[in-house]
Amino acid sequence: QLQLVESGGGLVPPGGSLRLSxxxxxSTLDSYAIGWIRxxxxxxxxxxxxxxxxxxxxxxxxxxxxxxxxxxxxxxNTVYLQMxxxxxxxxxxxxxxxxxxxxxxxxxxxQAMCLMTYGDFWxxxxxxxxxx
Length: 132
Known about the structure:
Layout: E1 3-7, E2 10-12, E3 18-25, E4 32-39, E5 46-51, E6 59-60, E7 68-73, E8 78-83, E9 92-100, H1 107-116, E10 121-122, E11 126-130
Parallel strand pairs: 2-11
Antiparallel strand pairs: 1-3, 3-8, 4-5, 4-9, 5-6, 7-8, 9-10, 9-11
C-alpha cells in the first residue's frame, strides 16, 4: 500500500518561497502520476500541478503557472513543488496525490488528474500560509 507524506509547509510573507516535498513509502513512485492539489477554507480543491510517471510535460493551473515548479526524484521516491513569488491567495492545505497509470503517463491523463483533482492515494496535507 502506497503511503504519501507531505512536508515543507509553513508561514511565509508575500513574495517568499517554499519547497514542498511528497515522500512515498510502501511502494515506488515510478509507476504513478503525482499531483499537488490544494484546498483553502470554504473553497473547492484545486489541482495546481501534476506530473506523469516519466519525462512528460507537467501541468500547471493558470493561477500558479510561471511561479511553481513540480519535479520528481524517483531515486528518492519524492516529488517536489517549488513555490516562488507566493501570494496570499496561495494560502491553503496542500496535498499530494498519486494515480497509478501505464507508463508513460499521457499528457491528457496528467491534465485530467489536476482538473478533476483525483488520485488513488493521498497524503494528509501540509499547511501553507502566506501572510505578512
